[in-house]
């Protein structure tokens, strides 16, 4: 009888506990989620490469340095409202579903980016022009508060456990494809229209492209279904509601979820914020600040700096899924750990190379920064959702991610440009990256390995029924051995001592 009780306590997996993924649905989920990120980062690429031009259009009364700082201040303002977007869209995604919220964020992102192309200039309406630009950026920032966390959650909850790193890396593949498309379009337009043509009217063209891209992304997202993990969690919550338990109802409320996030999962929140800081400081330093740094601070031709950063983005695009696949094999911690140490050691040499001028040495410096960036970009989307349980995943990840991005990531171009302007030291960006590397290393030290394991609060996910049967069989064998070992220990305790 005791052995039976022990075996029940060490219950093995059942076939209904294991989810067999549907490959076509997984592909649609990855594609639709990545397309939203492509849309978001198309706007970032355009904004970063047009920083100097937008400064002339919307802040013409300032000096060139002040124009850049003003433009990046407007860029950073969008990140100040991202935590508000996370507070709204994250818990909402845990309550009404991931797919619905992702459709809404897609509409808001596309509309706000498209609207920038119609804005009047400072010469036409005066101070109202930068205010309208700020409003568009705030709407875009609010919507992106629920975008990345929702997209990573959606892919993670659809991906088989052993391929989550590879499939999750496609989300950030979309990120850098979007950035490359935006920055590439600006580079081509600058070469064709020239600086004066871009200032007069050419700057509007990239923002107009966002409209059709948004419609395509919205169509794909409306065709999606809810994730298997969310469906199971929703069924469990429905059963709990039928029991009319007031404690459970309070726990499921928005206020109850927020309280649980910060009381029971505060360590995961801090780890998430540290990893997001590491990734996003590196990301925005390279993608948003580096083109302006090379052209405005170092005096390189705009086309040269744009082409160098664009080449760096293409390198990241080519390598990112390989890094994701590597994290499935070696683990998330080793990749983050190696990237953090390398960032501390190589950030200064990379910027020293970039300062040399010309093409060859700055190209090597950009390649180094790109290789550092891809370590984090290829691993983040599979690492961050695994920190939180299913019922809180979207909300907790939205809040932690957006607080960190708002305070440290999106403000990177503003702080870097302001510090360079104030100190006159053009190595400040390298020191900024080194500090981010130290913080990321500390966060990685406390990170638990999640590669190949089920998400917290969810059952295992496999690719084929055969893999499910094998997993159940191994689980039964393991449970039996554990029960046998405990039974032997109990018998040893009961056995009378030898005389």
Would you summarize the structure shown here?
The chain is an all-alpha fold and 499 residues long. The chain has helices at residues 2-9, 23-49, 51-58, 64-80, 82-96, 98-116, 122-125, 128-144, 147-158, 164-202, 204-222, 228-242, 246-252, 254-264, 266-297, 302-330, 332-354, 360-383, 393-409, 412-423, 428-445, 465-494; strands at 19-20, 461-462. A two-stranded parallel ribbon has the order 1-2.
Largest sheet at a glance?
2 strands, parallel
Secondary-structure element order, as H and E? Answer: HEHHHHHHHHHHHHHHHHHHHHEH
The portion of residues assigned to helices is: over 70%
What is the end-to-end distance?
A: 29 Å
By DSSP, the count of extended strands is: 2
Radius of gyration (Å): 25 Å
Uncertain segments: 1-9
Looking at the structure, what is the overall shape?
globular
Counting DSSP H or I runs of 4 or more residues, the number of helices is 22
Strand content: under 5%
State the strand order across the main sheet. 1-2
Q: Assign the structural class, choosing from mainly alpha, mainly beta, alpha/beta, alpha+beta, or little secondary structure.
A: mainly alpha
Determine the mean pLDDT.
83
């Amino acid at each position: 009888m005791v052995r039976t009780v022990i075996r029940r306590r060490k219950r093995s997996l059942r076939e209904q506990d294991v989810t067999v993924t549907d490959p076509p649905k997984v592909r649609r989920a990855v594609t639709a989620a990545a397309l939203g990120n492509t849309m978001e980062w198309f706007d970032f690429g355009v904004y970063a490469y047009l920083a100097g031009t937008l400064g002339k259009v919307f802040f013409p009364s300032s000096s060139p340095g002040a124009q850049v700082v003003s433009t990046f201040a407007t860029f950073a303002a969008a990140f100040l409202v991202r935590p508000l977007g996370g507070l709204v869209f994250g818990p909402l995604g845990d309550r009404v579903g991931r797919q619905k919220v992702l459709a809404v964020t897609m509409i808001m992102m596309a509309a706000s980016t498209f609207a920038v192309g119609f804005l009047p200039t400072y010469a036409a309406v005066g101070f109202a022009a930068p205010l309208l630009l700020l409003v568009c950026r705030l709407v875009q920032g609010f919507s992106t508060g629920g975008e990345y966390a929702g997209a990573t959650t959606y892919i993670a909850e659809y991906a088989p456990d052993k391929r989550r790193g590879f499939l999750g890396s496609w989300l950030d593949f979309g990120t850098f494809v979007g950035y490359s498309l935006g920055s590439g379009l600006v580079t081509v337009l600058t070469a064709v229209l020239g600086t004066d043509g871009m200032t007069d009217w050419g700057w509007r063209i990239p923002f107009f492209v966002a409209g059709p891209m948004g419609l395509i992304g919205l169509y794909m997202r409306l065709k999606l279904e809810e994730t298997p993990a969310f469906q199971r969690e929703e069924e469990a919550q429905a059963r709990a509601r039928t029991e009319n338990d007031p404690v459970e109802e309070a726990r499921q409320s928005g206020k109850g979820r927020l309280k649980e996030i910060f009381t029971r999962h505060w360590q995961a929140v801090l780890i998430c914020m540290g990893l997001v800081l590491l990734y996003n400081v590196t990301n925005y330093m390279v993608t948003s600040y580096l083109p302006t740094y090379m052209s405005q601070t170092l005096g390189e031709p705009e086309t040269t700096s744009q082409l160098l950063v664009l080449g760096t983005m293409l390198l990241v695009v080519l390598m990112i899924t390989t890094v994701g696949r590597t994290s499935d094999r070696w683990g998330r911690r080793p990749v983050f750990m190696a990237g953090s140490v390398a960032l501390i050691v190589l950030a200064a040499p990379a910027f020293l190379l970039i300062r040399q001028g010309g093409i060859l040495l700055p190209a090597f410096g950009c390649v180094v920064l790109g290789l550092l960036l891809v370590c984090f970009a290829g691993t983040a989307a599979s690492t961050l959702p695994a920190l939180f349980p299913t019922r809180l995943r979207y909300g907790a990840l939205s809040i932690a991610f957006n607080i960190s991005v708002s305070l440290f990531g999106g403000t990177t171009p503003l702080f870097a440009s302001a510090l360079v302007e104030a100190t006159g030291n053009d190595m400040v960006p390298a020191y900024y990256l080194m500090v981010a590397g130290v913080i990321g290393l500390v966060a990685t030290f406390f990170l638990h390995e999640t590669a190949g394991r089920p998400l917290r609060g969810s059952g295992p996910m496999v690719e084929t029924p055969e893999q499910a049967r094998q997993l159940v069989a191994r689980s039964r064998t393991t449970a039996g051995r554990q029960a046998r070992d405990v039974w032997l220990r109990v018998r040893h305790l009961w056995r009378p001592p030898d005389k």
